[in-house]
Amino acid sequence: MPIVSVGPVCARRGCTRPEWKDRLCARCWRLAALFGRDPRLFAYEPLDGYTDERDAVPLPWGDLEREAGARGVPIADVIARREPGSARDRPM
Ligand SMILES: [Zn+2]
After folding, report:
1. How far is the CA of 43 from the centre of ligand 1 (A)?
2. Rounded to 5 degrees, what angle do the CA atoms 26, 32, 77 make?
3. CA-CA to 71 of 20 to 30 Å: which in 80, 81, 86, 92?
4. Distance from residue 55's CA to the centre of ligand 1 (Å)
5. CA 16, CA 20: separation in Å to the nearest integer?
6. What spacing in Å lies between the alpha carbon of 44 and ligand 1's midpoint?
7. CA of 28 to the centre of ligand 1 (A)
8. What mean pLDDT comes out for the span 12-35?
């Protein structure tokens, strides 16, 4: 994999915008918030969608394990973390 010198980009597959927060660019991060999703997991939903039902993007289990260990909670709690007041209540 070539070294990219322009700084970190969005972690979402197929997205080349500069990283903004939680490894996502601002656009993808806001999209994740809109859907009430964990931004770090949203990064693993490809921009173009999955090519078929067996297509998948690996989850960052190492990062999740480190965060779970640092916070002393199970990994499931890290994944299930929801920001209060998420976009679920938004008017359609
Ligand atoms: Zn993005």
Report:
1. 8
2. 120
3. 86
4. 19
5. 12
6. 11
7. 4
8. 89
